[in-house]
Amino acid sequence: MLTVLFLGLLVGLRHALEADHIAAVTSLAGRSGSLLDRIKVAAMWGSGHAAALTLLGGGLVALGTSLPERVARGFEVVAGCMLIALGIDVLRRLRARRVHFHVHQHVDGVRHLHAHAHDTTPHRQPAAHDHQHVRGLLPRALAVGSIHGLAGSGALVVLSMQMFGSGLLALAYVICFAIGSILGMVAFSLVLTLPFALSPRLLESVAGRLEVVAGVATISIGGWMALQAAAF
Predict the structure, then answer these.
(1) What distance in Å separates the CA atoms of residue 67 and residue 150, rounded to the nearest whole number?
(2) Which residues are within 8 A (CB) of 109 and not within 5 positions of it... i.e. 6 or more apart?
């Protein structure tokens, strides 16, 4: 029993680091203004993901059945479209902040690429900032995580039943898998953002370029995911 629980936890940790999950959380966490807020967003995504896996996956295990393939594909298409929307929103926010890149050359011949954001908000408003309050992001992160959990629940149930057969062991595996996905996403968020929290200058120098990469990558992953699911 302990082996099953530990295995589920480890596989859940790895599952959290799949490309579509990382893209979703990165797009959402980019709106947060602090390391703690980013961790909260990642934890909320993980909670939604875990809740969907546990409720739907646990229910299917208890009934001894699996999710119809057409329904599972539908969830994957929805998750892919949601990623596309998140990526577009990242690029929209960059455009709204009037971020642009340019190259200039120093006297010694060294060339540099710089990103600049021309904020239209009056500088006399010290309370104005570029990040949403985390309270507004948490429900969205929960919803995004839940959709991803629904999209992955069908395959998880089939795998757990094939591995263990016993409904009780399969359910225990699903629960530990869900817990591992929360821990994995929080750990990823911490590792990703800690260097920028320790060095604000590093964040300032690469933030614009990272957001462009995150936006384009999220749209690409979402499009691939939706097309792959719809093709079957």
Answers:
(1) 10
(2) none
- Give the integer Cα–Cα distance in Å for 96 and 81: 22
pLDDT in tens, 196-223: 555 555 555 566 677 788 889 899 999 9
Tokens standing for residue 16 = 């959290």
Nearest of 140, 152, 151 to residue 89 by alpha carbon: 140
CA distance 51 to 147: 10
pLDDT in tens, 80-139: 999 999 999 888 877 776 544 445 555 556 554 444 454 444 444 443 444 455 567 788
Average confidence (pLDDT) over 130-154? 77
* Residue corresponding to tokens 């795998």: 159
> How far are the Cα atoms of 61, 125, 127, 144, 180 from residue 48, in angstroms, in the given order?
19, 36, 31, 7, 13
pLDDT band at 66 (very low <50, low <70, confident <90, very high): confident
End-to-end CA distance of the chain: 37
In sign, the C-alpha dihedral spanning 168, 10, 75, 94 is positive
DSSP 33-46: SSHHHHHHHHHHHH
Assign 65 to helix, strand or coil.
Answer: coil
- Residue at 62: amino acid letter: A
Q: How many CB atoms lie within 10 A of CB 17?
A: 13
Q: CB atoms < 10 A from the CB of 192, how many?
A: 16
Beta strand pairing call for 99-105 and 111-117: antiparallel
